[in-house]
Automatic annotation (TrEMBL):
Transmembrane region(s): 70-90, 96-115, 307-325
Primary location class: membrane
Pathway recorded for this protein: Cofactor biosynthesis; adenosylcobalamin biosynthesis
Protein name: Cobalamin biosynthesis protein CobD
Keywords, ordered alphabetically: Cell membrane, Cobalamin biosynthesis, Membrane, Transmembrane, Transmembrane helix
HAMAP family assigned: CobD_CbiB
Location relative to the cell: Cell membrane
Family: Belongs to the CobD/CbiB family.
Length: 326
């Protein structure tokens, strides 16, 4: 592809100009306000409704595992095709609507796919409740962002859960969407969000989901392969260390990707994360990630948020640099 055709393709997809940088800034400044969510929901809600409908139609106990596996492949293909297709169409329409300001319109369509503000807004109340030694409020707050049994967690357990969620979500909520936005514009961003939503809803190992969600889980692993490692490196840079722990412990996580950012955060803070965790009354004996203290508190959550914010700023620099190079 010659330079003229390459630039034309990148412009049509919304990669050139400071689209990603402006999208990051918009997300950090306003996020997706609760009032907007209450009124119109969030764009990923469309993916969730489609996935739920496909699951209701095609993932019935009477169907064979082979049928459900094929149906799961069809489902994720539909989700990605719709997400990427709508993103491509929107990027093509913007120049016709806004002319030379089309990049700003594309940034407005991209920023809901990022979660800097939302993640900070969800983790900070956990730290605040722990600082007040209000365990019940801390459990309630952390229960909004993790799937484990929060009623059994003490203050240290709540702090670990919050930091683990913050570090893992740095990848699939920020680093990965940004990576795909930079790599393939709006189609890449919203195609990725479709994959990630499908994985969170059906990409589980329980009997109900194992066959139907297999394709979604595997595709999510592939989509996060590079962003997870970039995200881990960014957290180490932001935290001023953690490289050795990241390289040593990343593969201790059950996910091939989530361990990179979690181990990076643990190494940067000098703490241990993961360990035994209860889900639906059953204890999963997970290996520890990191080294150092296990008895964490509000101060550790605040330190993690500081590392997280610096990491987000580093991603701003990356996004600005890519725009300048292109």
């Amino acid at each position: 592809m010659d330079q003229t055709r390459w630039r034309g393709w990148t412009r049509r997809c919304g990669i050139v100009e400071p689209v990603a940088l402006v999208a990051l800034m918009l997300d950090a400044a306003v996020g997706w306000p609760a009032s907007v969510y209450a009124r119109i929901g969030h764009p990923v809600g469309g993916f969730a409704r489609l996935i739920g409908a496909c699951e209701a139609w095609w993932n019935r106990p009477a169907f064979s595992d082979r049928w459900r596996r094929v149906a799961g492949v069809v489902t994720i293909v539909l989700v990605v095709a719709i997400g990427a297709g709508v993103g491509w169409l929107a990027a093509r329409v913007m120049p016709w609507l806004l002319g030379p300001w089309s990049w700003l319109g594309i940034a407005l369509l991209a920023f809901p796919g990022l979660a800097q503000r939302s993640l900070d807004d969800h983790v900070r109340p956990v730290a605040a409740a722990l600082a007040q030694h209000d365990l019940k409020a801390a459990q309630t707050a952390v229960g909004k962002i993790v799937g484990r049994d929060v009623e059994q967690l003490d203050e240290a357990g709540v702090a670990r859960a919050a930091i683990e969620s913050l570090s893992e979500s740095f990848c699939d909520g920020i680093a990965a969407p940004l990576f795909w936005l930079l790599a393939a514009g709006l189609p890449g961003l919203w195609g990725y969000k479709g994959v990630n939503t499908a994985d969170s809803l059906i990409g589980h190992r329980e009997e109900r989901w194992r066959a139907f969600g297999w394709a979604s889980a595997r595709l999510d692993d592939v989509a996060n392969l590079i962003p997870a490692r970039i995200g881990g490196a960014i957290l180490c840079l932001a935290g001023g260390g953690g490289w050795r722990v990241m390289m040593r412990d990343a593969r201790r996580h059950a996910s091939p990707n989530a361990g990179w950012t979690e181990a990076a955060m643990a190494g940067a803070l000098g703490i241990r994360l993961a360990g035994p965790v209860a889900y639906d009354g059953a204890v999963a004996d997970k290996p520890w990630i990191g080294e150092g203290r296990v008895a964490l508190d509000a101060g550790d959550v605040y330190r993690a948020l500081s590392v997280y914010r610096r990491a987000c700023l580093l991603l701003w620099i990356v996004a600005g640099g890519v725009a300048w190079l292109l």
